[in-house]
Write a structure and sequence with these properties.
By secondary structure, the chain is of the alpha+beta class. The chain has one domain: Metal Transport, Frataxin, Chain A (2-Layer Sandwich). It is built from two helices and six strands. It has helices spanning 11-35, 102-114; strands at 43-47, 50-54, 60-66, 71-76, 80-87, 92-95. A six-stranded antiparallel sheet has the order 1-2-3-4-5-6, with helices on one face. Residues 1-7 have low confidence and may be disordered.
Length: 130
């Protein structure tokens, strides 16, 4: 069975899912920076659909809305650039080349950086982590 791709999601549903996702990721990153000593000079900024997370010596994450493509784009200092489609059946954003979710990748990378288990399950549209 094929996953529903983002182009089949109407614009209003995409915009709602995208806004809620970016807002909850902004809150998540603000909380993790505040509670994680290795990020003491880290910084989060969010505006115009672009979330920028500067994790000091660990690099900069940029997560942004791409409305024309109905995607969220990620630039990771660890895994590089990826484009995520909203897949309602997985309740999340999926990278079509490896079928992993945006939140699953962030969990993996941030857990590696912090050497602790990172939990993004409270974020909007966090997906099924497969």
């Amino acid at each position: 069975m094929k996953h529903q791709q983002s182009r089949e999601v109407d614009s209003a549903a995409f915009e709602c899912a995208c806004s809620e996702t970016l807002d909850s990721l902004c809150e998540f990153f603000e909380d993790i920076i505040e509670s994680t000593p290795i990020f003491k000079t880290a910084d989060v900024s969010f505006g115009d659909g672009v979330l920028t997370v500067n994790l000091d010596t660990h690099g900069i994450y940029v997560i942004n809305r791409q409305s024309p493509n109905k995607q969220i784009w990620l630039s990771s200092p660890i895994s590089g650039p990826k484009r995520y489609d909203f897949v309602p059946s997985r309740n999340g954003w999926v990278y079509r080349h490896d079928r992993k979710t945006l939140h699953g990748l962030l969990k993996e990378e941030l857990s590696s950086i912090t050497k602790t288990s990172i939990d993004l399950s409270n974020c909007a549209y966090c997906g099924d982590f497969k």
